[in-house]
Specification:
Layout lengths: L1 H31 E2 L2 E2 L6 H36 L11 H14 L7 H24 L4 H25 L4 H9 L7 H20 L1 H8 L2 H6 L4 H23 L5 H12 L4 H25 L8 H29 L1
Antiparallel strand pairs: 1-2
């Protein structure tokens, strides 16, 4: 038993080390790969300025966004016990995007944009839960997902109305609809990085409680855990982290849904180890997707949200098909 435990620990360390190396490689690609190839040397002040003022903030924002969105996706799926739950399907991303668009519409300073995003994101979460409980009188996850999709569609329609009312803001608002890190600045990195790090540390500190919740409400209550309070607290932390990220990047869908599922299926590890792997894989994937979108048809830049959708949709279809086959085989057996 001791040998098996040591082997599993060694394997987990090896997996984490591999993904950490991939993350470092992804960061290097994002920093140094351009439309003309790999550039390690900068010959003049202009190239250095472009590197520090544009490339470095963009890389950091992509890294932060990938880690934060995947971590929040894991929390939604774990707490709600549904593999389809994330900020996109629950409508929180659309609510946060609409809040940011409202701030842009009225010319609010950049410091207050995340506040609008958080406000509308939390409002969406509350509405989704209230609609769900009103419809089924219980906390039914399937109904919650449908409610989130409907409310998300409503906010998307409202966002389009804003575009019609203020055409001069089209470029800045459209970026929110497809998800992009191209407008990254030092201030956006500071805001998103600070909030994301705090939220991730809080979620790591609560990982023991999240693990107990996975055992089921009855066992958790037996162990003296206030399941409803912990669940709501985790959802609120994840919602705030998502809202702040989306307030500067726009809707980046699917990454928070796909990566936690793949990690859970491929690696049978503890909730803490899943968190670490999700952070490494989420950051790597978003960096790679942004690099591809930046160089594939340069000088035109494809928003990272579109690249991720192209990658994620086939993976999502595969996961759905294999999940259905697994359920059918379980029923037949």
């Amino acid at each position: 038993m001791q040998i098996k435990s040591t082997t599993n620990s060694t394997r987990l360390i090896s997996v984490i080390a591999i993904w950490f190396f991939i993350l470092l490689l992804s960061i290097s690609m994002s920093l140094f790969v351009g439309s003309t190839g790999v550039s390690w040397h900068f010959d003049n002040q202009l190239e250095w300025t472009i590197f520090y003022k544009l490339r470095v903030p963009r890389t950091l924002l992509a890294l932060i966004a990938g880690m934060g969105l995947v971590m929040s996706g894991q929390i939604y799926q774990t707490i709600l016990n549904n593999p389809l739950a994330d900020s996109f399907t629950l409508g929180l991303a659309s609510g946060a995007t609409f809040g940011s668009a409202i701030a842009v519409f009225f010319g609010v300073t950049i410091w207050y944009v995340p506040l609008f995003s958080i406000l509308f994101s939390l409002f969406t979460l509350i509405v989704v839960v209230l609609v769900t409980e009103t419809m089924v009188k219980t906390f039914h996850v399937a109904t919650m997902i449908l409610s989130g999709i409907f409310i998300g569609a409503f906010f998307n329609a409202a966002l389009y109305i804003l575009l019609l009312l203020k055409p001069d803001k089209v470029n800045s608002m459209v970026s929110y609809m497809f998800g992009s890190v191209s407008s990254a600045e030092q201030i956006t990195v500071i805001i998103t990085g600070t909030v994301t790090i705090i939220c991730i540390l809080l979620l790591f500190s609560m990982s023991h409680f999240i693990k107990i919740i996975q055992l089921g409400d009855d066992k958790a209550l037996t162990l003296g855990l206030n399941v409803r309070f912990i669940s709501w607290l985790c959802l609120l932390i994840a919602a705030v982290m998502t809202a702040v990220i989306i307030s500067f990047t726009g809707i980046i869908g699917f990454i928070g849904m796909i990566v936690p599922q793949v990690v859970k299926r491929v690696y049978s590890v503890s909730i803490q180890a899943q968190m670490v792997l999700n952070l490494l894989i989420g950051g790597s994937l978003l960096l790679i997707a942004d690099t591809i979108g930046r160089v594939i048809i340069s000088p035109i830049q494809i928003p990272v949200g579109i690249i991720l959708s192209i990658i994620a949709i086939p993976v999502m279809m595969y996961l759905m098909i294999t999940e259905q086959r697994k359920k059918n085989s379980g029923i037949n057996s």
